Amino acid sequence: MTYTTRPAHGAHSSRRSPRSVRPPHGGRKLRVLFGALSGLVAAFSSLAVAELAAVAVRPQASPVTAVGEAVIDRTPGALKDYAVRNFGTNDKLMLQLGILVLLAFFAMGLGLLALRWRRVGSVGVLAFGLLGAVSAMSRPDAQRYDPVPSVVGAVVGAIVLYLLAARLAAQAAPWRDDGLGAQPMGGGPADTSFDRRGFVMLALSASAVSAGAGLLGNKLNAAGTQKAAASRAAVSIPTPRATASAPPVGSDLKLPGLSPYITPNPSFYRVDTALVVPTVDANTWKLRIHGTGVTKELDISYKELVARGVIDRDITLMCVSDEVGGSYVGNARWTGVLLAPLLKEAGVVPPSKGGPADQLVARSSDGMTIGTPVEAVMDGRDSMLAIAMNGETLPFAHGFPVRMVVPGLYGYVSACKWVTDLELAKFSDFDAYWAKRGWSAQAPIKTESRIDTPKGSGKLTAGTVPVAGVAWAQRKGIAKVEVRVDGGAWHTATLAAQDTIDTWRQWVWQWPATAGSHRLEVRATDLTGYTQTEQKVDARPNGATGFHSVTVNVAA
Predict the structure, then answer these.
(1) Closest C-alpha among 174, 170, 169, 199 to residue 186
(2) Lesser CB count within 10 Å: N end or C end of the chain?
């Protein structure tokens, strides 16, 4: 017990009474820094443990993937189109990075909050886990245990944050100023107001254990991928019973800067919503055909599908989200099983012959739904379930083991990758994934053309300059391509040899370029006599229109 003697009236004490004060500014800054760090360590622990827990469920159940795919599902169309145009095939990477950056800021905020309210900070971590769990269950392909990794990771993260925050407060003591400077009342040096050593050791330990859990999770998930890769490597592409003829001589002009007639697999565009590319084992893959008008349901294995005989065809595919002159179009030789005979085997009758179903709903292993007109599949075009691309077994990113290819339709209504289910239905009864988001339910590819060379803002020298590109009008074919300079007269380009009406066609015009800045435009006319319109229309809801143009500078 301490006794204090009050000074006599008028007397002055030589020392001031002790009073509690805040610790020195440097100590507070260090504690705040450690608080933010504790949030980051907790978030890292949460994600790493969730990654390991996802091994018991599936890779798509990890929190970042679940939240990311939920964000994709709910992103406004205009913003999604902007991302595709500006980031290309890196749009998913940018989304994941954005989620991680936001998570880092959120985690640091929780760490700072936990300095004063330990339990509230931990509850914040649990709230993020709940977000991951809800996101996982909101996906079209949601499975029963998908929320588990998010929940397990959140619990671990909450515990880690609570323990780290406790270390930051473990040796905190009131400070006093007794006239000799700020000192902790319990004695000892000022920089030991909290358990700095204990915090660092606990943070390092939690980080090390979490890193190990994350690496183990990645390794175990990779094991499943390796199994699927082994099944892909074991696939032997059968000899087609109906082989497409070689592209005619002159179909590829082989000009510098011009897209090759056949797009190599590594260069072929990829647009889908999968943050994690599905890796499906061909040995366990099954295709179910069922629904309205089906008299005989089919469950077909990969071997049974291939045994029906394959064909190969050169077909150009295009994504509807592409802007005029964009790069989301490519031409490949596809090998697969014709789809119409399979539907007939199941008893399907097209609407034109009285069939009750007008929509073929394709479902992929990642839950995507794509609605295709039954009539388009069964009208005689080479609609197929593709198993190979340019003589190579389908790459995982392009749909292995099986994907749909339907000539003449934009990919979002025809080109279902990783397909596992085909259901016959009516457009009036069911809206597929993109139709629910404002895109047209039916979308034939529009007649279009693109300038590949010279590039926009290119620098050229006066003289003869080849202006070249590609044009396409699936199911119709290209009849003419024209180019104009600075809004002047149209000049007819020379067309490469036509392969089929389902492939694009190269073209070139020899331009007598003069010095100055010039704007080049192109338009195509198909075999029906239709000339593409100059009117600019956005991609939504069923494909962009307008003339593609480039501006070039020509030196004298």
Answers:
(1) 174
(2) N
